[in-house]
Amino acid sequence: MNTWFCRAPDGRITLTLHIQPGAKKTELAGLHGAALKIRLAAPPVDGKANQALLKFVAETLQLPKSAVSLKSGHNSRRKVLEVLGSEVAAVAALAAVHG
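Above: the chain sequence. Below: its structure as tokens.
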């Protein structure tokens, strides 16, 4: 059972993420406990990492950036995102697409 994401009855999908800012490149990095780990090339300064995260998740799920929002963890490595308009299968595949 995946514990890093859940789907609400209204179709919204909540993702629990562990973020590593300042990495060499932005990429999915597999599971980190009960969260999906994402390495971000952006530094954790002035919200740059948060903006890069929203853009990366939206592009990866082939959604407009407006479909992804940061719900909690603005100043933390542990973040919770809300995604609208994505299929559960596409979200579940994120954990399998790490390098």
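The helical segments are 48-60, 88-93.
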